[in-house]
Amino acid sequence: MAMRLSIPADAARIFQAFTQPEYLETWIAFPGDDADSYLVAWRQPDSYRFDHYRSGGRDLIVSGTYRFCRRRKMLFTWRMSGHREQAESLVYIRLFGNFSSTILELHHRGIASAADSLWLQEMWARSLDRLARLFPG
């Protein structure tokens, strides 16, 4: 799966949105989320974790490790457990641009099934739309 979009912000701000828990909690959106759904994010130097809550309880955990994490490039593993299990896959993010606008490229590889691919496609589309809305042009 591959996605590309332009965001009216500099790469440093977008990098923060991908790596700082308080920002991740504002824009990551899972399929089926409603007004009561929310995310709690953690980051260690080489890993991350999201706990997703729906209907008053935790239903999903997403976790992974960073293979590398630089201002314009990130490669990290992605594994889901809980209500929806997914085998480990890889996410590659690359940021191109200058101070006023950045092109974000996302590649999510190694997805185990067509159903997982559809779910992740919707999750990334919804999430990246919310991310772009954090930076009104």
Task: Tell me what you see in this structure.
By secondary structure, this protein is of the alpha+beta class. It has one domain: Alpha-D-Glucose-1,6-Bisphosphate, Chain A, domain 4 (2-Layer Sandwich), CATH 3.30.530. The protein has three helices and seven strands. Strand 6 and strand 7 form a beta hairpin. The longest helix is centred in the last third of the chain and has 20 residues. It is globular, with a radius of gyration of 14 Å. The mean pLDDT is 94.
Question: Would you spell out the secondary-structure blueprint of this structure?
Answer:
Elements: E1 2-7, H1 11-19, H2 21-27, E2 38-44, E3 47-54, E4 57-69, E5 73-82, E6 86-97, E7 102-109, H3 114-133
Antiparallel strand pairs: 1-7, 2-3, 3-4, 4-5, 5-6, 6-7
Give a short synopsis of this structure.
The protein is of the alpha+beta class.
